[in-house]
Amino acid sequence: MQTAKTETSKAEFLIIAAPDLNQARQDWLGSLTNSRRLAAHTLDAYERDTRQFLQFMTGHLGTPPALKDVSNLRIADLRSYLASRRNDGAGARTLGRGLAGVRSLLRYLEKQGLANAAGASAIRAPRQPKSLPKPLSADAALRVVNTQQQLAEEPWIAARNAAVLTLLYGCGLRISEALGLTPDAVADTTARSLTIQGKGGKSRLVPLLPAVHQAIAEYRRLCPFHLNGTTPLFRGAKGGALHAGIIQREMQKMRSALNLPETATPHALRHSFATHLLARGGDLRTIQELLGHASLSTTQVYTGVDTDRLLEIYDKAHPRAHP
């Protein structure tokens, strides 16, 4: 025999709104599927978040909400909903995503002439915490860029993958910047720097270490395609321009083979470049220039990664660090 608590939870799941609002919500979900063609996981999140919101409103009102109850929703109601979810342990990201789902539903209802979404638009989403970059350890980064560790069977493809990954770790490039290089750009094998066109068309100089030259030279030696001029330096298996997704998939395979964390992505090598430089005494202004960050505040996030170094500096330099 089912308990009263079980029956109640089922009722909350099945009856989350009065028939008019429930039908409008189903129409909204249908429009997201057919018109906006959102990804399946996004649709699932919107369905779940609005279901939780309407379940909250049921308790808030004492009865399943109807269209009239959300037609002119107050900011106070939405704040009560966010407070309830926060009390249940939801973090800022979860709350922000939940509010986005509710806003989408209310804006749909507004377009249908069924609600006023002003309250939902006026309320601020919870401040999102800044997530720290997740670099690889120096040992892991060196293994990832090693040609011998690449999983591709064809030697030239293994050399290609190693060269691309070496550019990310050795020069701090974004993957799009590495794949945008031409043979002419790296023709001078004695060059100590490379000019990169970054975001917003801004140019910057990055170092060209001997290891980077060696990785590119090995790839060019083995590549079966003619590489010259302003054509793409890095090629796919059939000779066309190499796509970022291929390198990302290769990195995914290496995570398993080398027992690396899920955070080990091509972009993590750029984070590793900055973090390891900082750990060896690099200053933030220089790292900012090398990464092509428009603002120093963007680069300062790496100080949160290298806490051990900051504590070491404190122990050595602060007058009160030692008795």
> How many strands in all?
2
Question: How does the helix and strand content classify structurally?
Answer: mainly alpha
Contiguous runs where pLDDT drops below 50 for at least 5 residues? 1-13
Give the terminus-to-terminus CA distance. Answer: 70 Å
| Arithmetic mean pLDDT | 82
Largest sheet: 2 strands, antiparallel
Shape estimate: elongated
Count helical runs.
17
How much β-strand is present in the residues?
under 5%
SSE order, as H and E? HHHHHHHHHHEEHHHHHHH
Radius of gyration: 27 Å
Enumerate the strands of the largest sheet in spatial order, edge to edge or round the barrel. Answer: 1-2
Helix share, percent: 55-70%
Notable characteristics:
3% strand, two-stranded antiparallel ribbon, mainly alpha, 323 residues, disordered N terminus, single chain
Walk me through the topology.
Blueprint lengths: L3 H11 L4 H18 L3 H22 L5 H4 L4 H13 L4 H20 L6 H5 L15 H7 L10 H17 L3 H5 L13 E5 L5 E5 L2 H13 L21 H14 L8 H14 L4 H8 L4 H4 L2 H4 L1 H11 L6
Helix pairs in contact: 3-6, 9-11, 9-13
